[in-house]
C-alpha cells in the first residue's frame, strides 16, 4: 500500500471516527448486574442490606475484592501530556483515547475500566490524586503520561500502593517487542544474546524496551540513539533517565555519532520515535538479514517494502495494514486480567518476560511475515492471565 492510498484511508477513518464519537457521545457506560425493580433486591443491594456488607469488609479488609467491583476493575490514569502522536493535548482531549482503552479492557478481558484524566503535569499532584482514589480500584493503568515524569509517577505508585500499577506505554509495548523479537530471532537464526541492537527513541517505550531486553538477554549489546545522536558517557545534556541507562550498564556508551554510525554492524533496529528516518542505505549498513522494528506511527521509520529491498529479513511496524503489527493490546488485557484474578500486588519484570514468552509461543510456526499473534487470538488473555510471578 502506498503512502498516498494510506493517507486517503486515514482521512476517511478520521471522518468516520468523528461521526461515530459524536453519535455515541462517549464509548463506554455503566450497567447494573441485577434487577432493581424487585423491592427485595433494592433492600439487599442498598439499605438496609448493604450495611452488613460494609461492616464485613471493615472487619475483613482483604475480602473487598470478593464483595465489590475491586476484583474486576482498573483506573486508566492520564494527564494528556503524551497522547498518540499528538503530544500534550491536555486531559479533556485525551479522554477519547482513555475511553478507547476502556473498551479494549472490556472487550478482550472483561475488565471494567474507568478513565480518570488529571489536570496536572506535576508528578507530586498526579501521585497524590491517584493515591487518594486508589481505594476505588483494583489496579492502575497509567497512560499517555510523558517522559520523564512517567517514570517517577509509576515507580512511586508501585511502591506506595498495594494494587498492581503499570504504565502501558512503557511495559505493554516492551512486552510485545520482546515477544516479536523472540520469534524474529528464531526465524532469522539469530541468538539475541549475541546481537547488537540499536534503539532509536529514548522516551517511555524506548527505555522500557531496553531495560526488559537487558533482563531477558544479558549478553546482548544495546546502543541508544536520541534526536542528538548516540547516547554516550561524555554527553553533558542527558536527563537523569538517560544517565541511568549508562550508570546501570543497560547501554553501550563509549562512542558518539549519528544513527547511521550506530547501525553499522547492527543486527536489530528498534524505532520508537520519528518516522521516515531510516534509509535503504542505513539497512545495508547492518549485518546480514537484519531485523527491523519500525514502530513510529503513522509513518514508520522505513516502509517494510524498502527495508526488505535493502535486505531486512523480518520487518515489524506499529501499523495494522502491514504484517507483524506491534500492538500493546496484545499484552495489557491479559496482564491485568491475571493480576486481578490472582490478587497480584505488583507486576514484576519477570511477570513481563513470562508474558512475552507466552505471546511468542502462541505463534506455533513463525515466519518472516508472522512473528506476532493476532490481537483477536482468543488464547491470548487466558494464557497470559495464568502467569503468577
Fold and architecture overview:
- Strand 8 (268-271), helix 12 (280-285) and strand 9 form a beta-alpha-beta unit.
- By secondary structure, this protein is α/β, with parallel strands linked by helices.
- The chain is globular and about 75 Å long.
- It folds into two domains: 3-30 and 68-163, Rossmann fold (3-Layer(aba) Sandwich), CATH 3.40.50.10380; 168-389, Rossmann fold.
- The protein is built from 16 helices and ten strands.
- The strands form two sheets. A six-stranded mixed beta sheet has the order 7-6-5-8-9-10. Strands 2-1-3-4 form a four-stranded parallel beta sheet, sandwiched between helices.
Question: What is Rg?
Answer: 22 Å
Looking at the overall shape, the CATH architecture of the largest domain is 3-Layer(aba) Sandwich
Assign the CATH superfamily of the largest domain: NAD(P)-binding Rossmann-like Domain
CATH topology of the largest domain: Rossmann fold
Strand element count = 10
Average of pLDDT: 93
Strand content: 5-15%
SSE order, as H and E? Answer: HHHHEHEHEHEHEHEEHHEHEHEHHH
Q: Which percent bin holds the helix content? A: 40-55%
CATH class of the largest domain: Alpha Beta
Strand line-up across the major sheet: 7-6-5-8-9-10
| General shape | globular
Number of domains: 2
How would a textbook summarize the main sheet?
Answer: 6 strands, mixed
The structural class is: alpha/beta
In whole angstroms, the N-to-C terminal distance is 42 Å
- List segments where confidence is low: pLDDT < 50 over at least 5 consecutive residues: none
Task: State the helix count.
Answer: 16
Amino acid at each position: 500500500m502506498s503512502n498516498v492510498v494510506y493517507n486517503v484511508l486515514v482521512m476517511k477513518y478520521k471522518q468516520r471516527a468523528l461521526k461515530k464519537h459524536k453519535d455515541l457521545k462517549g464509548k463506554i457506560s455503566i450497567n447494573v448486574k441485577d434487577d432493581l425493580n424487585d423491592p427485595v433486591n433494592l433492600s439487599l443491594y442498598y439499605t438496609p442490606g448493604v450495611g452488613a456488607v460494609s461492616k464485613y469488609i471493615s472487619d475483613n479488609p482483604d475480602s473487598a475484592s470478593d464483595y465489590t467491583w475491586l476484583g474486576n476493575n482498573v483506573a486508566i490514569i492520564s494527564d494528556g501530556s503524551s497522547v498518540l502522536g499528538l503530544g500534550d493535548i491536555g486531559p479533556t482531549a485525551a479522554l477519547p483515547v482513555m475511553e478507547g482503552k476502556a473498551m479494549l479492557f472490556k472487550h478482550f478481558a472483561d475488565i471494567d475500566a474507568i478513565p480518570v484524566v488529571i489536570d496536572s503535569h506535576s508528578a507530586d499532584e498526579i501521585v497524590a490524586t491517584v493515591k487518594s482514589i486508589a481505594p476505588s480500584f483494583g489496579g492502575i493503568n497509567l497512560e499517555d503520561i510523558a517522559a520523564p515524569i512517567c517514570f517517577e509517577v509509576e515507580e512511586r505508585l508501585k511502591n506506595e500502593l498495594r494494587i498492581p500499577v503499570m504504565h502501558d506505554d512503557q511495559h505493554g509495548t516492551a512486552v510485545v517487542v520482546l515477544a516479536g523479537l523472540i520469534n524474529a530471532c528464531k526465524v532469522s537464526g539469530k541468538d539475541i544474546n549475541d546481537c547488537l541492537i540499536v534503539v532509536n527513541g529514548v522516551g517511555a517505550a524506548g527505555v522500557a524496551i531496553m531495560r526488559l531486553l537487558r533482563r531477558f538477554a544479558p549478553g546482548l549489546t544495546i546502543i541508544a540513539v536520541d534526536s542528538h545522536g548516540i547516547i554516550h558517557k561524555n554527553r553533558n545534556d542527558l536527563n537523569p533517565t538517560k544517565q541511568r541507562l549508562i550508570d546501570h550498564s543497560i547501554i553501550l556508551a563509549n562512542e558518539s555519532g549519528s544513527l547511521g554510525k550506530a547501525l553499522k554492524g547492527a543486527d536489530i533496529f528498534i524505532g520508537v520515535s520519528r518516522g521516515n528516518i531510516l534509509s535503504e542505505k542505513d539497512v545495508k549498513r547492518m549485518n546480514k538479514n537484519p531485523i527491523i522494528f519500525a514502530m513510529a506511527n503513522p509513518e514508520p521509520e522505513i516502509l517494510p517494502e524498502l527495508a526488505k529491498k535493502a535486505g531486512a529479513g523480518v520487518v515489524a511496524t506499529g501499523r495494522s495494514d502491514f504484517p507483524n503489527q506491534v500492538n500493546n493490546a496484545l499484552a495489557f488485557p491479559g496482564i491485568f486480567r491475571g493480576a486481578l484474578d490472582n490478587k497480584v500486588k505488583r507486576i514484576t519484570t519477570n511477570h513481563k518476560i513470562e508474558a512475552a514468552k507466552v505471546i511468542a509461543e502462541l505463534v506455533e510456526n513463525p515466519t518472516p511475515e508472522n512473528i506476532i499473534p493476532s490481537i483477536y487470538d482468543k488464547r491470548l488473555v487466558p494464557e497470559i492471565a495464568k502467569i503468577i510471578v
